Each structure stands twice: as C-alpha cells, then as structure tokens.
Amino acid sequence: MRTSKNSKMANVMKPSFFVGTDIVDVHRVARLIRNKKFVQRIFNPAEIRYCQNKKNSAQHFAARFAAKEAVWKALGHILNGKGISHSEIAVINNASGKPMVRFSKRLKPYENKISLSLSHTETAAIAVALYHSQ
Asked: What is the model's pTM?
C-alpha cells in the first residue's frame, strides 16, 4: 500500500507526549475548602479522607487541585476541547506513596499514560502531569 509523503510526515510529527503544569496558592485553597460543596464537587471521598487526615490538609488539597488542573492541561491536546470535570480525575497514592491518577470510565483509556509529580510548601503547591502516548 502506498502512502503519501504528507501522511508520513503527519505520523512523524505527532508528539509522543504532552505536559501540563499548575501551581496553586495554598492559602487560597485553605479558604475554598471551608465550603463543603466546593470540596465535594472537586474531590472524591478518598481524596477528602486522605487530605483531612494530614496535619496541613490545605497543602494536600492544594496539591491535588493542582494535579487535576495539570492533568486537564495535558489531556486537553488529546481530547480536542472535550470537557473534563474535576470529578473525573482522582489523585491517589500507590503503595509506595507515589501519586497516580484514577479516571472516570470515559477517560479510563488514558489512565496508564499519565505520570504525575506533586510538591508543596506552606504557601504553594505545584503539579506536573505528563501524558505519554507510548
């Protein structure tokens, strides 16, 4: 089967990864998480339990919020503008403590293609999400 030069170029030029990043002010999130409706709209019950069990829960909520935003940015290129809600993205920790994402059924095919890194201080939380297509 013959392929055109343009179709070969299109395959060669497709990026194999996309990066999303976000930084969040911990103090802003500390104010937002006082609103129970906000917390329930953005975070799932496991995320809420995890964060509330931490000494500085606002830092952990902020890191997870930044992670959801970073994942949204990384997947935005793949989903071509189709909306993603925060509730479709859950940030969990594996047995060794490494953060990972769990997606809604609709996004499940992308779940094992996302790598996640989180960090926080008293004042800021940052997340980087890497979508790798391979």
From this structure: 0.85
